[in-house]
Known about the structure:
Blueprint: E1 2-7, E2 12-18, E3 21-28, H1 34-44, E4 50-55, H2 61-70, E5 72-75, E6 85-86, H3 96-108, E7 114-119, E8 122-128, E9 133-141, H4 143-153
Parallel strand pairs: 1-4, 4-5, 6-9
Antiparallel strand pairs: 1-2, 2-3, 7-8, 8-9
Helix pairs in contact: 1-2
Amino acid sequence: MNLIIDVGNTNVKLAVYSLENILKHKRVIKHNALVSNVYEIKNAYPMLDKAIISSVGNITTEALNTLKEIIDLLVLTHNVKLPFVNKYKTPKTLGVDRIALVSASVKQFSKEHVLIIDAGTCITYDFINNKNEYQGGAISPGLRTRYKSLNNLTANLP
């Protein structure tokens, strides 16, 4: 039984999974509530063994250290061994959130062409080929940012 933690730009998402089944998932709006939510999940699922965290949002070193005391934690970075070959021209600039998505797609759709679209604070598009090689992608404003931009920068659009 493991825990996945995704610290995004706007929300923190947590999921408990076992044998490829999600047992619980939770979205936390306040980043500073991450540690208390992990404690709560750990108490509810005492068999939790390991966790992985992907963070593009704000998380303090203190919070990371506390999480490491609660559970065996792997912090996803560019130095972690990945299940795909990163052909991105500047691999160190690829966000760990996108690395996590590509890794998951390779696990689920190995040796297939896959376009991964993630619609969060930003919308990302990432492509992996049937050789499990990351070819690249794009990032654009998310729906809320698009709406605000149109509202603020146009005369007659909502």
